[in-house]
Design brief:
The chain is an alpha+beta fold and about 325 residues long. The protein has a domain at about 1-35 and about 130-315. Helices cover about 30% and strands about 30% of the residues. It is built from ten helices and 18 strands. The strands form three sheets. Strands 1, 2, 3, 13, 14, 15, 16, 17 and 18 form a nine-stranded antiparallel β-sheet that branches. A hairpin with an 8-residue loop joins strand 5 (about 50-55) and strand 6 (about 65-70). Helix 1 packs antiparallel against helix 8 (about 250-265) and helix 6 packs across helix 7. The model is unreliable at about 315-330 (pLDDT under 50).
């Protein structure tokens, strides 16, 4: 399965960087087309073919139930925001939900102060958890996979990240809701999304702000990137709003991205069954943490994040005890 990722990386080319304010996007180009017949979560919800709800009437913070009635698998992205039910959540890893199936998926809470029903079903906003919090989530999910074999994240770290973000953007809500931050910053974020545009054969993107690498999202076909592009750009732009403003010489961003992709090629990979269809592959190097979802010999989604000193401190045993988690809602 590692060869799938290596072949995919070999086929990627860094395009000419685009910039708005201090956010730089380096397009990742390829002629690849995975040919897998999945649809996105937004498409499935719009067609009434999928339901996402709490696992029971009482609910459980780190998991949700998904019922897919479609004849196609449904792609749910790592970090995708789900709004409704007892509290808003984000998805802990990219999942390909099998056609006509019911599964339980791992999630994290991004609305600390609410634990009451606003409705029975979740909807998607097509937003994605901001890149810094998503990076922390990826690091802690990897640590949990190593220690417990499950796709759990450090809920306390995610709550702390949402709180910092809300305070930074003067967007503190009674329930400390990530979605409220996005709504407050919507005009600025939409400006970023309108100034950066996918180009021909673009299957992914690397993002930098203040001269620093923020992350990579790349897919098995151009069409998927175009469908989720706006949400991804806004997730990186939300952190770029507060990043240091720098000027770099032409070509510098592209060279950084090429070097990081080369580092990813040489990384060791660990593979295990994914939550839904396919195989989950995790990698970690001195500078990167990442993962990929592969299915039927094709790469579906590749994610890379920077690995800084704070992320290196995450280790098995940091997860909140269930008793502490419940106490936050009493």
């Amino acid at each position: 399965m590692k060869q799938i990722v290596l072949s995919y990386l070999d086929g990627l080319r860094a395009g000419e960087a685009q910039r708005h304010e201090n956010l730089v996007m380096v397009p990742l180009l390829s002629d690849v087309d995975d040919g897998l017949g999945y649809i996105t979560l937004a498409e499935a919800l719009a067609a009434g073919q999928i339901e996402i709800r709490e696992v029971s009437e009482a609910g459980s913070v780190p998991e949700l139930r998904v019922v897919n009635r479609a004849e196609n698998p449904v792609l749910i992205l790592d970090g995708e925001e789900l709004v409704g039910a007892k509290q808003n959540r984000v998805v802990n890893t990219t999942i390909l939900v099998p056609a006509r199936s019911e599964i339980v998926i791992p999630v994290s809470c991004v609305e600390q102060g609410r634990w009451s029903y606003s409705g029975k079903l979740f909807r998607t906003t097509s937003r994605v958890l901001n890149s810094q919090a998503r990076s922390i989530k990826a690091h802690t999910v990897y640590a949990c996979l190593l220690s417990h074999g499950t796709f759990r994240a450090d809920q306390g770290a995610i709550w702390a990240g949402v709180e910092r973000l809300a305070e930074m953007h003067d967007a503190v809500s009674p329930s400390m809701d990530l979605d409220f931050v996005y709504q407050k910053k919507a005009p600025a974020l939409e400006d970023y999304a309108s100034r950066l545009a996918p180009c021909a054969r673009q299957v992914g993107a690397a993002f930098l702000a203040g001269g620093r690498f923020m992350g990579v999202d790349a897919f098995g076909r151009e069409g998927t990137l175009r469908k989720v592009f706006k949400g991804l750009v806004e997730s990186y732009a939300l952190d770029a709003l507060s990043a240091e403003k720098t000027e770099e010489p032409p070509g510098a961003a592209e060279e950084k991205v090429k070097a990081l992709l080369e580092e990813a090629k040489n990384a060791p990979f660990e593979e295990r069954p994914s939550v839904g269809l396919g195989t989950d592959l995790r990698l970690q190097t001195g500078n990167l943490t990442g993962f990929a979802l592969g299915h039927e010999g094709k790469l579906v989604h590749l994610v890379l994040f920077p690995r800084d000193e704070s992320s290196k401190s995450f280790a098995p045993g940091f997860f909140m005890r269930p008793s502490l988690r419940r106490r936050r809602y009493l």
